[in-house]
Amino acid sequence: MRYAVQVENLKKSYGNHEVLKGLNFSVREGEIFALLGVNGAGKTTALECIEGLLKYDGGKITVSGKMGIQLQSSSLPEHIKPLEAIKLFAKWNKTAVDSSVITALGIEELAKTSYCGLSTGQKRRLHLALALITRPDIIFLDEPTAGLDVEGRISLHGQIRKLKEQGKTIILASHDMAEVESLCSRIAVLREGIIIFEGTVDELTARVSKRYNIRIITEKGEENYESEDVGETLLHLLWRYRADNISVLDIRVDRGNLEQHFIDITNGGGK
Ligand SMILES: Nc1ncnc2c1ncn2[C@@H]1O[C@H](COP(=O)(O)OP(=O)(O)OP(=O)(O)O)[C@@H](O)[C@H]1O
After folding, report:
1. pLDDT one-digit tens code per residue, 224-251
2. Nearest-CA neighbor of 81 among 122, 27, 34?
């Protein structure tokens, strides 16, 4: 197994406030990895330590590859034009402007608009383009789709998937569980300064939830059940419907979504 990032016993305090109390997690090469946690859990702090933007107090961080960091909003001068910003970043990084990035992210369409006139989604596209200027191997995205409309999110998700297809490693912090569930290979959950879970969404589901949600639609309407023994419950229900001569039209069984499991585990469940 090759790792893009390895974090061992990472510690960081702001004054007396101990935010990271010894984080341990690893990001594999070529995966999309999400750092999850409630507001103030320390996700941005952890990412900034890895990115080298923030000094940390203890532990070890190993990064194998070139990093690209997506800027936070309002990080550029108000009147700079998108292509000017790209040229400036390329110059700072002593690299040629990569026209494929400009085309892929539709930056030409924004050429005439100043930074302050761009929408949130357009700014995010530009920020991602700037992060890709140096042709990084590892890309950091802090809440990449916050504030975007559905179309903007779908478009950015498409870009993130393309980066993965190109073999890039992507590390993101997000509050959007649907986004994480659809994009990420693995996740880590941060709570009270430590990582309380690292693995796939399915592994989190198996650890947190033994309950299945069962939804049955019959000719009489919809009924919902929860069960830890889905086979037994279904058998019982189907016999009952047959005895009552009720037709079953549809059956759905699931183990809940990441949002429910995230709430469970951050509230102390699944330990
Ligand atoms: N520069 C700073 N000085 C003092 N405290 C800080 C500083 N930056 C962050 N903190 C505190 O550290 C804690 C973690 O903040 P951080 O921004 O890393 O959390 P987060 O998980 O990214 O939160 P969010 O989901 O709200 O973005 C918070 O309590 C925050 O108030």
Report:
1. 998 989 999 999 999 999 999 999 999 9
2. 122
Question: Using CA atoms, how far apart are residues 188 and 262, in angstroms rounded to an integer?
Answer: 11
For residue 181, give its domain range.
Answer: 3-205
267 within a domain of the structure (yes/no): no
Please give the model's pTM, rounded to 2 decimal places.
0.82
Q: Answer yes or no: do 50 and 116 share one domain.
A: yes
Instruction: Provide ipTM, 2 decimals.
Output: 0.97
Closest CA to 212 of 159, 168, 254: 254
Structure tokens at 6: 């390895």
How many A from CA of 72 to the centre of ligand 1? 14
187 Cβ inside 6 Å of ligand 1:
no
* Segment holding 33, helix H or strand E: strand 32-36
Ligand 1 atom with least separation from CA of 48: 18
In a domain, 125, yes or no: yes
Quick one: 125 and 242 in the same domain? no
Find the helix packing angle between 150-165 and 120-132, rounded to 10°. 10
